[in-house]
Design goal:
The chain is mainly alpha-helical. The chain has one domain: Rhomboid-like (Rhomboid-like fold), CATH 1.20.1540. 61% of the residues lie in helices and 0% in strands. Helix 6 packs antiparallel against helix 9, helix 7 runs antiparallel to helix 8 and helix 7 packs parallel to helix 9. The two termini are 22 Å apart.
Length: 244
């Protein structure tokens, strides 16, 4: 893991310089899956049936065929793979664009702190937590898709890890700002922009997953590289960070 290259304004860590390969890979995967959804939707679109106004509006049956999850499908039929496919599916352009924006806001900043492997781990675990809580609180036949559970997990992890950054440092400001901004997109902005009903239980589950992994990373004996002091003098000024 790369070390920091500078200090924040108050002696705490500055934002580390690191590539965003995991974030970009997730964005590419989501974009490719959405393109697949669109191709299948166009191929099966029948205007004469009047079931949907355009091929951009994805029907529930199409999403289920492509990998949406529900309690009945996952636990009743044993199709566990849906817990990994549902998070990369989306209901339409507004859904995928806003989730992509949220990922681009929080992903690179968190990845520079924890590295690509941990970013992917937080995202996947939070998606699964979100899936489980969603299926627990919703009707068994209700299908769900979307990356918002994983996004809420990334946002929660960013907020938790900001506690280890120096007070007033640019790193803390970046983590808090990106966490709050990304978290507000699926919970507030998407419902307003789309008028759709959102599954807040999935958001809650994803946030809990990110909170748990964020606390684990915060309390590890070895800090994530992005939270290590830039120099010994910076560490002395901050005081040695105690374990939890």
């Amino acid at each position: 893991m790369a070390e920091l290259t500078g200090e924040g304004a108050t002696g705490g860590p500055a934002e580390p310089r690191r590539s965003s390969v995991a974030t970009l890979s997730l964005l590419l995967l989501i974009a490719l899956v959405f393109l697949l959804e669109l191709v299948v939707s166009i191929a099966t679109y029948r205007p004469s049936l009047g079931l949907r106004p355009s091929p951009w509006e994805f029907q529930v049956d199409l999403l289920v065929r492509l990998g949406a999850n529900s309690w009945q499908l996952v636990f009743g039929d044993g199709e566990w793979w849906r817990m990994l496919t549902a998070p990369v599916l989306h209901t339409g352009p507004v859904h995928v664009l806003l989730n992509g924006l949220a990922l681009w806001i929080v992903g690179p900043r968190l990845e520079r702190v924890v590295g690509p492997a941990w970013l992917l781990a937080v995202f996947v675990a939070s998606c699964i937590f979100g899936d489980l809580v969603s299926m627990l609180f919703n009707p068994p036949e209700m299908a769900g898709v979307g990356a918002s559970g994983g996004l809420m997990g990334l946002a929660a992890a960013a907020l938790v890890l900001s506690a280890r950054a120096g007070s007033g440092s640019s790193l803390r400001a970046a983590l808090v700002g990106s966490g709050l901004s990304a978290g507000s997109i699926p919970t507030v902005i998407f419902p307003i922009a789309s008028g759709a009903t959102v599954d807040h239980s999935a958001h809650l589950g994803g946030a809990l997953g990110g909170l748990c992994l964020g606390l684990f990373l915060l309390c590890r004996r070895t800090e994530p590289a992005g939270l290590r002091p830039a120099s010994l003098s910076a560490q002395v000024r901050r005081g040695a960070a105690g374990g939890c």
